[in-house]
């Protein structure tokens, strides 16, 4: 008799491809040496945090003599951190936000879970373009919801707006957009987002209630070729922004994210109160205090994004030389190329035989492609070229 619930036992059977490859990679590194393994499996930033984080850490050490310096706080976050975050987001989102409009959460993952817990009834659906971040389905199912993926256009990953319109129905509670997209790097354009909003507003009229447009934006800070990420909060009244500082400040382990609720939502404080409550009763209580203090002090800076620009070019060159078909990512630090022969799992195995770690697109709801994370050293990218080419030739 299993000690686990049937649902969790099933989850283990189809456990995250990303973690599987990460663990397999550790075995390869122990066997062949880390320098001989080309690990593109995990989006774990290797850049050091900005200098402002180091300075904030020194200031923090001086605060530890004060009573309650690392104690409990309001569940929505430190008041000063929320104020700084609201000012930052007001500039970024092009709409005025107050401290009361934002809740600091345990990463974007904690924010999405707290949000879904606050708004879902059993059977509610989340419509989401595919490819999508692998955990979205789990987050929806945590609260008796269901993820409804809608496949985007092949290779370019433009939204299939007709298919999205067909997928949105009376059960739809949330339309979830991740831009820049993990894993494809796609930054959705203002034009296609306007059509998406038209679709949602039409459905709102039919349903007599609003659908939330939730945008997950941890890679907003990292775009290329002068591409900008449109502000959905400025375009659609019932927008909720969820994000984190894991990538922009290179402190993923500190688990600092947020939920920002549009002030245009009628009675938005009711929603914010609900999310604050669920943030607590899900066991997060509040985001880590050290991370909040660091975020507040470094909120207006990011890691050196020029390094990612160089790595993107290097990775594109490697894929070109190997004869792999791909589209250039508009943002983020992932490539999502087409698997030679169309079998993403077979190609992943072929890469593995050359000590190259990638994640099959099946794990992102988009078979036939693989994800390569280029948040690794330039040397690793450059030296991977011959191995990737051999893996392609084997296919």
Descriptive account of the structure:
This protein is 42% helix and 13% strand. It is α/β, with parallel strands linked by helices and 395 residues long. Strand 3 (125-130), helix 6 (136-141) and strand 4 form a beta-alpha-beta unit. The longest helix is centred in the middle third of the chain and has 18 residues, at 190-207. The radius of gyration is 21 Å and the shape is globular. The chain starts with 5 loop residues before the first helix and ends with a helix.
Keywords:
alpha/beta; three-stranded antiparallel sheet; seven-stranded mixed sheet; 395 residues; 2 domains; 13 helices; 13% strand
Question: Any chance you could write out the topology, listing elements then pairs?
Answer:
Elements (H helix, E strand, L loop, with lengths): L5 H8 L3 H16 L5 E2 L11 H13 L15 H15 L8 E5 H13 L5 E6 L5 H6 L4 E6 L9 H7 L4 E7 L11 H18 L4 E5 L22 E6 L11 E6 L6 H14 L7 H10 L7 H17 L11 E2 L8 H10 L2 E2 L1 E2 L9 E4 L4 H17 L1
Parallel strand pairs: 1-10, 3-4, 3-5, 5-6, 6-7
Antiparallel strand pairs: 2-8, 7-8, 9-12, 11-12
Helix pairs in contact: 3-10, 4-10, 5-9, 11-13, 12-13
């Amino acid at each position: 008799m299993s000690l686990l619930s049937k649902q969790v036992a099933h989850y283990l059977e189809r456990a995250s491809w990303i973690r599987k490859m990460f663990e397999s990679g550790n075995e390869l590194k122990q066997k062949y040496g880390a320098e001989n393994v080309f690990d593109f499996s995990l989006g774990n930033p290797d850049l050091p945090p900005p200098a402002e984080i180091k300075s904030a850490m020194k200031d923090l050490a001086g605060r530890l003599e004060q009573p309650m310096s690392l104690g409990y706080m309001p569940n929505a976050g430190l008041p000063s951190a929320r104020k700084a975050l609201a000012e930052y987001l007001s500039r970024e989102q092009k709409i005025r936000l107050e401290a009361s409009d934002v809740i600091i959460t345990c990463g974007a993952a904690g924010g999405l879970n707290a949000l879904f817990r606050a708004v879902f009834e059993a059977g509610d659906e989340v419509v989401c373009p595919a490819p999508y971040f692998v955990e979205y389905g789990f987050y929806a199912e945590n609260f008796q919801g269901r993820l409804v993926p809608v496949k985007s256009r092949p290779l370019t990953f433009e939204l299939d707006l007709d298919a999205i319109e067909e997928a949105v129905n009376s059960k739809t509670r949330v339309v979830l957009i991740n831009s820049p997209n993990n894993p494809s790097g796609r930054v959705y354009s203002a034009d296609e987002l306007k059509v998406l909003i038209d679709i949602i507003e039409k459905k709102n009229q039919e349903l007599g209630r609003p659908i939330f447009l939730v945008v997950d934006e941890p890679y907003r800070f990292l775009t290329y070729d002068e591409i900008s990420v449109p502000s959905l909060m400025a375009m659609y009244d019932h927008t909720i922004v969820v994000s984190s500082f894991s990538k922009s400040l290179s402190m993923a382990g500190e688990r600092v994210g947020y939920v920002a609720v549009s002030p245009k939502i009628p009675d938005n404080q009711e929603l914010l109160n609900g999310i604050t409550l669920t943030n607590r009763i899900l066991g997060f209580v509040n985001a880590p205090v050290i991370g909040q203090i660091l975020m507040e002090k470094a909120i207006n800076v990011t890691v050196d994004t020029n390094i990612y620009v160089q790595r993107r070019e290097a990775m594109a060159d490697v894929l070109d030389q190997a004869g792999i078909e791909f589209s250039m990512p508009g943002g983020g630090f992932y490539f999502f190329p087409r698997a030679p022969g169309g079998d993403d799992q077979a190609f992943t195995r072929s890469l593995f035989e050359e000590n190259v770690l990638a994640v099959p697109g099946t794990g992102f709801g988009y078979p036939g492609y693989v994800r390569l994370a280029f948040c690794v050293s330039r040397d690793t990218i450059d030296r991977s070229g011959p191995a990737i080419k051999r893996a392609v030739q084997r296919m």
